[in-house]
Design brief:
Layout (H helix, E strand, L loop, with lengths): L2 H20 L3 H7 L5 H33 L1 H20 L4 H15 L2 H10 L6 H26 L6 H20 L19 H9 L4 H15 L1 H14 L3 H52 L3 H11 L5 H10 L7 H31 L10 H20 L5
Helix pairs in contact: 1-6, 1-7, 1-8, 2-3, 3-4, 3-5, 3-6, 3-11, 3-15, 4-5, 4-8, 6-7, 6-15, 7-12, 7-14, 9-15, 10-14, 10-15, 10-16, 11-12, 11-15, 12-13, 12-14, 12-16, 15-16
C-alpha cells in the first residue's frame, strides 16, 4: 500500500476513533457536569451528537466543493490541525456549553470524510471504487474498534484522558499527511467553487438530475438513521440493561468494529463478486434487520454480545451504494457526490440521536408505561426495512 492511501485510511480511522474514544466516558462526563440522571444524560448525549451531525450536514458539500476547487491535500491537513485543537478544548471543558462548542467544531472538521472518499475515487478506476470504498469503511471500522476499546481503558484515568489521546492522534496524522500526501486534483478536473452548489439542497438538486441518484441517496440516508442507534444509545443501553462498566461498553463496541473492519476490508470483495453491488446492499439490509430485532428483545448479555458481529454485516451497504453512485457521476463532481453523501449520513446522525435517545428515555424512565430498553433497536430495524423497500422499488428496472 502506498503512503498517500495509508494516510487517507488513517484519517478515516482517526475520525472514527475520535468519536468512539469518548463514547464510553460520555454518560459519566455529562452527569459530572450536571446532566442529572442516566435518562437525562442520554438526552444531553443526543443533543451533543445531533449538534455534531448538524455541522457535518451543513459543511459536507462545502468541504467537498472546496476540495474540488483547491485540492484534497490542503483541505485534509487544515481539518486535522483544527480537529486536534478541538479535542484539547473538550479535554479542558468545565461546562456542557463548552462541550457543545467542541461538537460544533468537531462536526465541521469531520466533514472531511467526503474529501477522503473523493481522494480514493480520484486514484481508482470505476470498477475498483466499491472495493476501495470498502477499504475506507474498513478503516472506519478499525477506528470504531480501537476508539471505544481505548476509551474504556482510559476511563480508568478519568473522563478527560480520551480527549487528550484523540488530540495527539489528529496532530500526528496531520504531520504524516504533510510529508506524504500528493495532490490529485489537476487543472483538467479542478472546478470553480459555487456557493449555490455548496449546500446540501443545492448539491442534491445538481446530482439528483443524474439517473438513479435520488432513490439510492434515500437508501443511504435510511441506513445511517438506523446505524446511528449504536453510537447514540449503546453505552446507555448497556448500563441500563446489563449494568456494564465503561470497559465492557468499550469492548462490546470493539467487537462490533472488528467484524465491520474484517467484512469491509476483505470479505466485501468476494461478496461483491458473488452478489453484485445491488445484491450486496440487499444482503446487508437483511442481516441488519435480523440483528437489530434480536438485540432489542434478548435479555441475555452473552447472547447480545454474540449477535453484535452479525449487526456489523450491514457495513457492506455504504461502500456498495457509493460504488453504484460514483459510477454515475463525472470525474469533476466526485468531491461533490461524497459531500452529498456526507450530508446524507450527517442528516441521519442529526435526527437519529435525538429520536433514539428520546425513545430510550421514554422506555426506561421511572414513569415509563412499558419498560423496554431495546425500543430504539426495534425502531432502527423498522427504518432499515424501509430502506430495503426503497432499494427494491428504486432499482427494479436495473435489476
Amino acid at each position: 500500500m502506498n503512503l498517500p492511501i495509508a494516510f487517507i485510511l488513517l484519517t478515516v480511522m482517526i475520525d472514527a476513533m475520535g468519536i468512539g474514544l469518548i463514547i464510553p466516558v460520555m454518560p459519566d462526563l455529562i452527569r459530572d457536569m450536571g446532566g442529572g440522571t442516566l435518562a437525562k444524560a442520554a438526552i444531553w448525549g443526543g443533543i451533543l451528537s445531533t449538534t455534531f451531525a448538524v455541522m457535518q450536514f451543513l459543511f459536507g458539500p462545502v468541504v467537498g466543493g472546496l476540495s474540488d476547487r483547491f485540492g484534497r491535500r490542503p483541505v485534509l491537513l487544515v481539518a486535522l490541525v483544527v480537529m486536534a485543537l478541538d479535542y484539547v478544548l473538550m479535554a479542558v471543558a468545565g461546562a456542557l456549553w463548552i462541550l457543545l462548542i467542541g461538537r460544533v467544531i468537531g462536526g465541521i472538521t469531520a466533514a472531511t470524510q467526503s474529501t477522503a472518499s473523493a481522494y480514493m475515487a480520484d486514484i481508482s478506476a470505476p470498477h475498483e471504487r466499491a472495493a476501495r470504498f470498502g477499504m475506507v469503511g474498513a478503516a472506519f471500522g478499525a477506528g470504531f474498534v480501537l476508539g471505544p476499546l481505548l476509551g474504556g481503558l482510559l476511563a480508568e484515568y478519568g473522563t478527560r484522558a480520551p480527549f487528550w489521546l484523540a488530540a495527539f492522534l489528529a496532530a500526528s496524522n496531520a504531520l504524516f499527511g504533510w510529508i506524504v500526501l500528493k495532490e490529485t486534483v489537476t487543472d483538467e478536473t479542478r472546478r470553480a467553487f459555487s456557493w449555490r452548489r455548496a449546500n446540501p439542497l443545492g448539491a442534491f438538486r445538481a446530482l439528483g438530475r443524474l439517473p438513479g441518484i435520488t432513490p439510492l441517496s434515500l437508501v443511504y440516508f435510511l441506513y445511517y438513521v438506523g446505524f446511528a442507534v449504536y453510537p447514540a444509545v449503546w453505552s446507555y443501553f448497556g448500563i441500563e440493561r446489563f449494568d456494564w462498566p465503561p470497559a465492557t461498553v468499550g469492548l462490546s463496541l470493539a467487537l462490533f468494529g472488528v467484524t465491520m473492519a474484517l467484512i469491509q476490508g476483505g470479505l466485501i470483495r468476494p461478496i461483491l463478486s458473488r452478489f453484485g453491488e445491488r445484491g450486496t446492499v440487499i444482503l446487508g439490509q437483511i442481516f441488519s434487520i435480523a440483528a437489530l430485532v434480536s438485540i432489542a428483545i434478548i435479555s441475555s448479555s452473552m447472547w447480545v454480545l454474540i449477535l453484535t458481529p452479525f449487526a456489523s454485516i450491514g457495513g457492506i451497504i455504504p461502500p456498495a451504494l457509493q460504488g453504484i453512485m460514483s459510477a454515475r457521476v463525472p470525474a469533476d463532481a466526485q468531491g461533490e457526490l461524497q459531500g452529498l453523501l456526507t450530508s446524507a449520513s450527517a442528516l441521519a446522525m442529526m435526527l437519529s440521536p435525538l429520536v433514539m435517545t428520546y425513545t430510550f428515555a421514554q422506555f426506561t424512565d421511572a414513569d415509563a408505561p412499558v419498560y423496554l430498553p431495546g425500543a430504539p433497536f426495534l425502531l432502527a430495524a423498522f427504518l432499515s426495512a424501509l430502506g430495503l423497500m426503497a432499494l427494491l422499488v428504486g432499482t427494479r428496472r436495473e435489476a
